[in-house]
Records
---
Amino acid sequence: MLEESAYAAVTQGSGLRRLAHVLTVAGSDSGGGAGIQADIKACAAACVYCSSVITSVTAQNTIGVQGVYSLAENFVAEQLRSVLSDMQVDVIKTGMLPSPGMITVLCQSIKEFPVRAVVVDPVMVSTSGDVLSGPSTLSGFCKELLPLADIVTPNLKEASALLGGISLDTVDDMRFAAKSIHDFGASIYQSVILPATYLDMLYQNVLVKGGDLPGSSAAIDIFFDGEQFHELCGPRIMTRNTHGTGCTLASYIAAELAKGTPMLQSVQAAKSFVKSALLYSKDLMIGNGPQEAVKASIEGGATIIQLREKEAETSEFVKKTVDCMAICRSYHVPLLINDRIDVALACDADGVHIGQSDMPAELARKILGPGKIIGVSCKTPAQAMKAWADGADYIGCGGVFPTNTKQSNPTIGLKGLETVCLASKLPVVAIGGIGAGNVQSVMELGVPNLKGVAVVSALFDQESVATETRRLKSLLTVR
Ligand SMILES: Nc1ncnc2c1ncn2[C@@H]1O[C@H](COP(=O)(O)OP(=O)(O)O)[C@@H](O)[C@H]1O
Ligand SMILES: Cc1ncc(COP(=O)(O)O)c(N)n1
Ligand SMILES: [Mg+2]
């Protein structure tokens, strides 16, 4: 827990210091990326105290939601009473509300214990595509909770669901959705809760999040405050670690509001926090690890997999090899091990890929026998000739272009690649800095024994490995 002094204080008339306080009413994500866990982390990062009422416990990881166990509505009511009757909550932030009854219970508590602001993240489906709160809750969201919300933060799918399933594919569509959700919130407000005279004071803000806007190179969110639109635009960070971004954003907004920051600035601060968090974590392997990435790349069209581990202990390398073997075997795709002939032998992998400073290919062939695949990295025609004489099956040629995965590796460019291909008696796979942007320039060399490309960053730094593999593959085969 943070030192108390690290928390933001809300000054009170009496002169006593009190902490800015967000109550999150949401589901638990056992994987720690989204839900209650994300909410508490976001509030802590904003130096705001966070209490938590848990609505549902999910068995969840970075791959998906494996199970959902929702708490009894009266027990959620009891948690709400415990917190709200005792503590001074500034802002309530809501996440997963799995049943209509849960929404009713929450709305009753909000009316009984009013707070300064309510942030509603209408969580319906997780990033992994699993349903967290079904269509039966839609009416409760719209009729009971939205009228109490100061801001509602739907993603594209949720905005679409709130508006009866309309399709949202462009930034203009997002503007339309933000205005429609606002108008319809206001109309319900008018009919259900307060006379029209209150409407000017208590309009509802809508933030339609564009994290999933197809084909966009920016991450654009549309904020509508009832009068003006604000386009919040940030760079789209290429990472698969976007699980929990929505929860983090909404909680950070709540935390800023709790400190007394005005609405638009709170949203801007939250957007900027999510950007920094994504930048910081973009290359982390949290789960969904090599095995899932291997599966996704095969499903996207990869025809051979090489496992390359530069830092793992031998025992860890062996474990990863066994796991990858199981996947590759089930898809009938060969698995090659980088450098470690012992690991390849121990796990009965399909072969090895060796560099110029690793075990000489001739010896590798002796050890592995004729049935295994051997690939050798080559930069020059002489190396290519030697690989053939040593009994290799193919050569990997490069680095063609500069790449982050091998920063000090000198590159040979397209010309160097062509020279080696022409001299090689073995099939060639081009490697080094190749991706969707330049793969066609490589294949256009048109040398018959240039059979394909080997990639790392082009697939694994992307949000969807399968989609990116498919894209690369289509560019590879188009002539
Ligand atoms: N790859 C990304 N790069 C930068 N910002 C992103 C990325 N993905 C999502 N965001 C931002 O994270 C926040 C949550 O958006 P989104 O992913 O659409 O919501 P949800 O997590 O509810 O599906 C938004 O501010 C969105 O712009
Ligand atoms: C318990 C819980 N609450 C909310 C989300 C949504 O988060 P995301 O859409 O970013 O996966 C989630 N996955 N799990
Ligand atoms: Mg998201």
---
Amino acid sequence: MNITMIGTGYVGLTSGTCFAEVGHHVTCVDINPEKIDMLLKGEIPIYEPGLADLVKSNVDAGRLKFTTSTEEGVKFGDVIFIAVPTPPQPDGSVDLSFIERVAREIAECLTPEIGYRVIVDKSTVPVKTGEKVAQTVRRYAPDGVEFGVVSNPEFLREGCAVDDLLHPDRIVIGSNDDKALSLMQKLYEPFVAPVLVTDINSAELIKHAANSFLALKISYINAVANVCEASNADVEKVAEGIGMDKRIGRAFLNAGLGYGGSCFPKDIKAFIAISEALGQPFGLLKEVERINAEQMDRFLNKIREKLWVFRDKKIALWGLAFKQNTDDVRESVAIKLAKRMLEEGASLAATDPEAIGTAKRFGELTGEITFSEDMYGTLDGADALVIATEWPQFANADLTEIAKRMRTPLVFDGRNLLDPEDAKSAGLEYESIGRAAIV
Ligand SMILES: NC(=O)c1ccc[n+]([C@@H]2O[C@H](COP(=O)([O-])OP(=O)(O)OC[C@H]3O[C@@H](n4cnc5c(N)ncnc54)[C@H](O)[C@@H]3O)[C@@H](O)[C@H]2O)c1
Ligand SMILES: O=c1ccn([C@@H]2O[C@H](COP(=O)(O)OP(=O)(O)O[C@H]3O[C@H](CO)[C@@H](O)[C@H](O)[C@H]3O)[C@@H](O)[C@H]2O)c(=O)[nH]1
């Protein structure tokens, strides 16, 4: 089938490429000419394992194209996906202006001669957005145009997006239009995954409810971690023990500095705002947010207790990305932590396997900070090492080398990557989350 992806950001590029990979013909549209120029030159604007090769092979096979023209995209795709940003407004509610604009732009390019089009929302949007999209397209399109509107939320995780897209746990398709639903089922035929068909409102709600539940699991284990610390228990063992119950599962029970990234913080805020607007305040999610914010304060207190003051201390910071296997620093807890330590007068030597460039461009880190690709180099003369992102390189670090390089071998592990006994044997004074400190 012919597919158009409007918005060639993280979701548009990865999912457009995967649709091409399973045999569809895909045109990716973006209003950012620099991004499209890069892609036309064979450069990939984001770091995502496996993506560069997949883009290249599908471009070479003639199944994947890039353009800045929405009109070209609307003429091309029987199915037109919307994958544009849905950022938060200051009050937490969702800014839907990008979606509204795309709905108008699609409408203005539709003609009765083009034939039936399915307009699919892949962006994360509040329940009832599909109804608004349908109204907007109807209002701005010429008479006689035929279209259906679908919600098809995206569940990919950054860092393993290609695998998540090619082998999803489930595909959710929501629409009140039977013709649109049958085209969507045909589109997803090459994927081996259960397909859940719902009405459009339920599909939209599934996305916010799923992300909120995952964030709830993270805050839950972080709250448990605090109880573990107070009782000399080990949160890793507790997570294993509760996770072995199939009804609970071990995934998303990694205690740490809390969740960040471009999705969870904004989507939890959005779901709180949506529920409130519908007259159903969701206090539980406010508590999830509170616990998440508190994790950072608790961790900083832990460092403060040992260092006494941050001023004039050299701290090695391992991690800038919001999680492993990505160069994305949007809403990164590591960046927030770095800002707090810089504000208190520490000097930082930061490293990250992929996110140094994005962190520099992000521009939020000002003060005494240097960046280095050499993770051991950041330790020379350091008063403390702070681990903020769960990269495997950090988990597999040479502990003796860490101890050798530092001025005082104090390690604060915000992602529980190291083994406390191994750290102790290597001569490190080691603090982590929800595990008794080993001195
Ligand atoms: N990043 C993720 O992991 C992820 C996963 C699932 C869902 N989502 C959701 O998907 C949506 C997109 O997220 P993202 O991370 O891909 O965003 P992004 O910022 O990486 O990309 C969005 C792209 O849309 C383009 N754009 C904006 N207006 C446009 C227009 N009128 N026409 C054409 N292009 C336009 C921008 O230039 C940008 O390249 C959001 O709603 C997000 O919540 C994101
Ligand atoms: O046990 C865990 C798991 C994750 N995290 C943190 O949670 C955040 C989000 O991680 P993850 O969910 O893996 O990354 P995202 O790429 O943001 O993916 C989430 O957000 C996407 C956008 O909506 C959804 O599509 C995905 O299903 C959903 O997992 C990161 O800061 C992680 O460090 C933890 O602290 N503990």
